[in-house]
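Hi Y.,

Following your request, here is the sequence exactly as I used it, all 646 residues.
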Amino acid sequence: MLRRFFVVSFYILSICMSAQAAPDTLWTQLYPTDSGQSFRGIIALEQGGFIAVNGEYASSGYVYRINDDGGVAWNAQIECDSAIQINSLCAYSDDEFFIAGMVSQGFNARDGWCARMTAAGDTLWTRSFRDSLRQELNSVAALENTIFCAGYTRRDSTDDAWLLALDMNGDSLWTRSWDFGGDETINDVLVTADGNLLLAGRRDVDSEQDGLVLYCNSQGDTLWSRVVGGLSYEILRDAVETNEGDFVFTGYRVSATGENNDVWLLKMNPEGDIVWSVSYGGDATDSGRELIYTPDDCVIVAGATHSTDDNNHFYITKRNSSGTGLWSYVTDDIEAFDVAYSIAGTPDGGFIVGGSRELLSSPFEMPFLMRFEGLRSDFYSDIQAGDTPLEVQFYSTSTGNVMQWDWDFDGDGVWDGTGPLSSWTYENAGNFDVTLRISDGTNYSSLTREGYIQVELNSPPEVVSFSPEDTLLAVPLGAQIHFTVSASDDNNVLHYSWWVDGNNEGVPYSSFIDNFNVQGVHEVLCAISDTHYATEVRWRVEVGLAASDSPEAECATGLLGGFPNPFNPSTCIRYRLQEAQHVRLDIYNARGQRVRRLYSGYIDAGMHKAAWNGMDEHGKTVSTGIYYIVMKVKYDMYAKKLLMIK
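Below is the corresponding structure, written out as tokens. Let me know if you'd prefer a different format.
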């Protein structure tokens, strides 16, 4: 059943809009001929290189094998008795392809024409087909052992949409034609994922043209048909299928002002319902000719624009799944007249555009190719050198239809991060290789920068000196003590903070003065820090009676304990003696086993100290745990608990 749809489309005045940057061109190449020619179709070969057909109406047609760098590997000339025009080609395998078009049979008489060729340039067969006085094949596609060619055939003074099925020898299997009451032609035939055929073209009735879409099975039976448009002039030139089974078409339609043409982009679901329709262009004639579907669910449209200056230019634009523009590219040679007719994806995720370029100094147009870069991994970081721990933010500047980013930040062959933005913290010193691998879902590109990140070990600040040097102090009530610390760090600014009994005194300097007016034991701490590490100096202050009340009585014998405690790796043990006597200091573990003898001998009366470096009798560092310092004097024994922490 034939249905007609009137579509309201969005009009974008500026064709130079760009939400993303267009990819860079790898190369452009002009292929001079002795007559007006253009590349009407191009395919990429898996083995490398491209096949392009040079198809203007002339006495000979040309097929080119193009190398990856744009050079010509070979070109094959296809001759006929009168004139030939090659309109389309499709790949059958990496070694063979089909081309289709028409050959002239005299005044106003044309036959459909098809050929099978190899990637080496050999022609296996050519066939011409006549259904009436005048017919032409505009597109060719292949499914398993069947070749489908589509175009038009003229009957009873009007053109009908025409579809042929051929076997692999070029012999006709069947033909189908459609008449919708005017002139109809098919510009593109697409084999869909479910093995059906999608035909796109135009219908012309009473000088008004509309887009025409036919959906058939592989035997040419119509499943549904649509006439789309509603304005005075709409043509569909090409179609692709998305991963979801929808169809996206390009072509051109009359602009909102009715004075020029705009590029037309249309999306349909598998049932033939319109999902959206957009048109965009400038103040002159613009058109879409072919498009490709990209792995990120977008399309890239190739066509022409006349809206930038007085000449035609390649117009290439990428659109997302809603038809919104992501970037656009326009050739800018004001001395040339360019038209893009064909586009193909390349194995590296890029694309190549074919068409024609006519230099103002040349009498005719010449075939013209532009290749755009595909997947190219690239990145930078916000910092490349510093001290541990070094946190680095990495940014991908890769090109192509990137869908996946994998990062190896330390050169160990393990992927450490994903996404276009990723961060990593380097805890160890060294020079580190960084690799970014990107993918478009099919292809990969990797970049490794050797020694890209240089990291030096950032050690804690080093205490050079401090005062008082004695960290165990006994002072009278009301005593004033001036504390100072001197520290160094080669690469960082140091910050000081002072704490008394766990309270921050708010002093950010290397010195601190305090009056001790409360009896008891107090702890003074100075924390010295750089960006990442901190070092501490601690004092233990025992505050007694006021100096005016302090008797000159001798202090009683006792063990004051270790400071700091907990400790690592050493602690200072303080003790006092009321009278001179023999003293023995031993370290015991929690099981009652002696670990180390610190001192044994005769000592005078007064305050004394002994250091323990955390090692046993054999010079080995003891493990984390509880230990006891035991002091024996005459008939008495004193003990204090110590905690070793690593």
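Confidence is low (pLDDT under 50) at residues 1-19, 547-554.

Thanks again,
Q.
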